[in-house]
Structures are given as C-alpha cells and as structure tokens.
Amino acid sequence: MTAVQKVAIAGSGVAALATAIQLAKAGVEVDVFEAAPQLSLGGSGISLQGNALRVFDALGVWDDIREAGYVFQGLHLRAPGPGAPVVAQLPDVNSGGPDYPAAMGMPRAELARILFAAAEKAGATVTFGAKVTGIQQSDAGVEVFVNEESAGVYDLLVGADGLNSTVRELIGIETKPEPTGMGIWRSFVSRPAEVERSELYYGGPVYIAGYTPTGENSMYAFLVEKAQDRFGISDEDASRIMLEESRAYDGPWNSIRDDLAAGAPANYTWFTKHIVPAPWNRDRVVIIGDAAHSCPPTIAQGAAQGLEDAFVLTELLIARDELDAALWDEFHARRLPRATAVVEASVQLGQWQIDGDRDADAPGLIFGIAHRMAEPA
Hints:
Layout: E1 6-10, H1 14-25, E2 29-34, E3 45-49, H2 50-59, H3 62-68, E4 70-72, E5 75-78, E6 86-90, E7 103-107, H4 108-122, E8 125-128, E9 132-138, E10 141-146, E11 149-154, E12 156-159, H5 166-170, E13 178-190, E14 198-202, E15 208-215, E16 218-226, H6 235-245, H7 253-261, E17 266-275, E18 281-282, E19 285-287, E20 293-294, H8 302-319, H9 325-355, H10 362-373
Parallel strand pairs: 1-2, 1-12, 2-8, 5-14, 12-19
Antiparallel strand pairs: 3-7, 4-7, 5-6, 9-10, 10-11, 13-16, 13-17, 14-15, 15-16, 17-20, 18-19
C-alpha cells in the first residue's frame, strides 16, 4: 500500500518526469500537466554529476542516458590568451559511487526525450497545453484546476513547474528566485577531438569561459558575464555577441567561434538563487526542483538536486501507508540541508568571481560539496 493512489504533477522537466516515472512504476495513477504546448526540446547541453546518474539508474534509464551522452573524468583549467595553456588538472569525486562515472554531458533535448518516453512507458499520462490554475484542498484530497476547469481530486499535487512556479504561488509561498548578478551565454556546437572533459578558463573579459562535451560530435560552450539586459535581441546578434566576447580565449574556442560564425544559435539567461525554507508542502501540495530551490550552475548540481528531490519524495510515498506529518518531516530532513548546502556553495563560487577574490579556496569548496553529494540523499 502506498501513501497515495492518485497524484497530479505540474511541469514536465527533469524533477517532474522523474517523479512521474517512479510513482507510475509503483502502480500510482499519475497525471502530468504541462502548460507548454509540447515537450521542451530546446536549450543546449547539460552537465550531470555522479549523484544524478545514480538516480537515473534507479529510474531505469541509465543505459539510455549513458548512450546519449558523453562520460568523462576530471576537470581542466586553462588560461586565457595565446595557446590557452592548461594550468591545472583537477580530479573528480565520483559522487554517485564507484558504479558510475564522475560526470557526463548530454544534449538537453535527448534528456527530455528519454525521461518523457520512460514516464509514458511506466503508465503516466502527460497532457500539454494544460496549466495548473487553481487548487482547493479538503480532507478528501486536493482538487486541481487546469486551464480554469477541474481536472479532478488527487491525493497529492507535486509542483515541479520551474523557477516561476505557479504552484508555489498558489500555496502562498513568497520566496522567489533572485538574480545573482551574473548572466550566461550558451551555445550548442561541434566537439573538437581535443575536448574530452569539461574545461574552464578564468580571467579575461568575462568571469568564466568553458565548455562540456555532450556527445561524440557535440558539446555546449558558455560564457559567464556580468548580468546585462540581453533579452529581446535577434538570434544573429546573440551569436555575434557570444563570438566577440570569446575572442580572448584560444584553443578549442577557435572551433566554437567558427560554429558561431556559421550560425550556431546562442541563448542568454541570468543566474538566480533561492531556497524555500521548510516546509515545501502545504498539506497535500508540495514543490520540488527549481520551484523550491535554484542556484548558479557553478558546480553543476541543479539537475541533480531536482532529481534527488523526486527520488526521496517518491521513495517515501511508496514506502509509507499514509501522507502524514512524519513523512513530510523525513522528506524535509533529507532534502533541506543538502539542497541548502548546494545553493550556498554555488552562490559563493559566483560571488568570489564577482568580487575578484583571488585568495578564495574554490577547489576546496567544490570538492567539499562533491564529497557530501557522494553520500546518498
């Protein structure tokens, strides 16, 4: 007997689909409501740490994920300027344990396709163009309104609907994402043979320049700069700006600039930070993933933390007989300290860059978080 028999999920991102997969596999009736008209297959690439890969294995999708991406060990730091010399080779902590590589990159679109297919195969129903617009809670459950009409009464509504979560607003949580002062350009480009792992360049005209391999022939490149109003510019101007800002960086950046000059699209977003204090639930409604916490991708733990939210929540819902205070207490005890540590460390790494703090122990902070993530959530 599970603590829930019928669950609604708002959103169709990583945390939402992971929740849908695990609950549907356990025989729970799952309805996923996504406001967008179709599955999001945009974006560039994504970096995934070992603790994320451990969750993918539990979901039953690790083989597909591994085949669609590019696994690697270690992190190289390069200097800007001619030749882009490697100045440090940092080892990775296998945060997923010895059965998984330390890290991997993959196209965001492939990750979305794999998780969506797994959710449908498990028995979850996914409806697009379906925005959760209201809730009404009672002792019997939570009535969920989609596009202003009742979609039925559920035992639980999971708000995994992203940074600008409607569910978070509906349950009266006022904590929202705040800009950190950094913005990032991203582009999906071809992979030069010499790129076999993530590489970062510190210094030069932007805070950080880097790239991560996502496949045999692909990688995503990024530039982190002071946050600016870059929104609303044309696709052509976006690629041109990213190309121009990268000219101080040699090595594989020469290939990246060739792709940008040939029309590789670039997109721009601001880094945000927030952590909703406990509780993340209001009776039979709970938020997880980016709805509950966000941070700069400075240690590449955003997706992993959303996956861990989903895994811990579903583990408890499947193992318990009742959706009671004890379940929520354990959920928050296992998730709040861990997610908070990741958010605080990620923000601190970015702030050191903004402040130009050359004495900061960035490697020590990164490895400390990695060792903490090696302990299962």
